[in-house]
Design brief:
It is built from two helices and four strands; from the N terminus they run αββββα. The chain is α+β, with helices and mostly antiparallel strands.
């Protein structure tokens, strides 16, 4: 199982930001307690063009797949074409980050397996 702590996720996030510098100002890593109380880390994408929380986390324990979760919003919102374009760019960052975290999880798991 690739154990992901806040510290490990921050290292991965720093690496992602180095390859995608425009994304850095909208990303954050927080401590997140898993079902057993262990720090599993949580990745936040702060959207400027939508009033919802977006976070990324592993799909499940032992899973290298990641999911993007969209939190509830208090109200409907409307965007003009330019706003939709800007929101789609933010969601594209979330998608790229999700793929990046999956790749890092797979590599991390392989490294743990080869060390045994």
């Amino acid at each position: 199982m690739p154990y992901r702590t806040m510290e490990l996720l921050q290292l991965w996030m720093d690496e992602f930001i180095a390859t995608d510098p425009d994304a850095g100002c909208r990303l954050d890593v927080l401590r997140h307690d898993g079902d057993t109380g262990e720090d599993t880390g949580l990745v936040i994408v702060r959207l400027q063009y939508a009033s919802t929380d977006v976070y990324l986390q592993a799909a499940g324990p032992g899973d290298t797949a990641w999911e993007v979760h969209f939190g509830p919003r208090p109200n409907d919102f409307a965007l003009r074409a330019e706003g939709v374009k800007l929101l789609s760019e933010e969601l594209s960052v979330a998608a790229r980050l999700c793929v990046f975290l999956e790749d890092k999880s797979i590599a991390h798991l392989r490294a743990l397996e080869s060390a045994v």
